[in-house]
Design goal:
One of its GO terms (cellular component) is cytosol. It comes from Paraburkholderia guartelaensis. InterPro entries: Cys_rich_dom. The chain is built from 13 helices and 8 strands. By secondary structure, the chain is an alpha/beta fold. The protein has 2 domains: about 110 residues, no CATH class; about 120 residues, Rossmann fold, CATH 3.40.50. Strand 7, helix 12 and strand 8 form a beta-alpha-beta unit. The two termini are about 30 Å apart.
Amino acid sequence: MRVGLFIPCFIDSFFPDVGIATLELLERLGCDVTYPLDQTCCGQPMGNSGCERDAAATEELFVRNFSDFDHIVAPSGSCVHHVRDHMTGIEQTAAVKKVRGQTFELVEFLHDILKVNEFPWAEFPHKVGLHNSCGTLRGLRTAKMSEINEPAFSKPLDLLSKVKGIEFVMPSRPDECCGFGGTFCVTEEPVSARMGYDKVRDHNRAGAEYIVSADSSCLMHQKGCAERLGLDLKFIHIAQILNGARS
């Protein structure tokens, strides 16, 4: 299976270890992974800000970079949500539709496409609180939303439950937004910060040692909030745990 690895720009700049863990994990699972060197942003910041047409050149480059792969995988639900559901700044040719339909967030790729049943190399002996970002939860439907009456499910929890030693703790409002919201944290900084404070306090009261998520952007925001509040919380991407990180 030929996989094109898409590493969002903020992960490339601030969290390269997440990109490396994603690559190593996919290769452990038998994927033939290529990282196109010409890749840049997927266009999400412009699209989210209402500048749809300004994202066209970036979106066209994305399609050129990833059109020859069986699947495109990224460790970021928000970026995948943009590609799959909002990449509309360019003409919707057959090639564009193909790339959009074959782009997956890491958790859903492992769970739905590869159907991974074990991570024998993984052990994480810590109390963990899971954060589902709004994009993965409501856009990609990786877990049950509390506002919808449906059977409970959680793809990230299903994967993490296969890791030795891990213990889950549940915040009182598990799918409440942390306040990052992409450009929202810039345009509505006081509201964003208060939402982040509420989120990390909720995890802290539940007894979490680590907050884990499939979105580094949410983790970055919450880490800053926790540090300002003086809370003893650590933050880690799900790719790192599944790839065998112990801390």
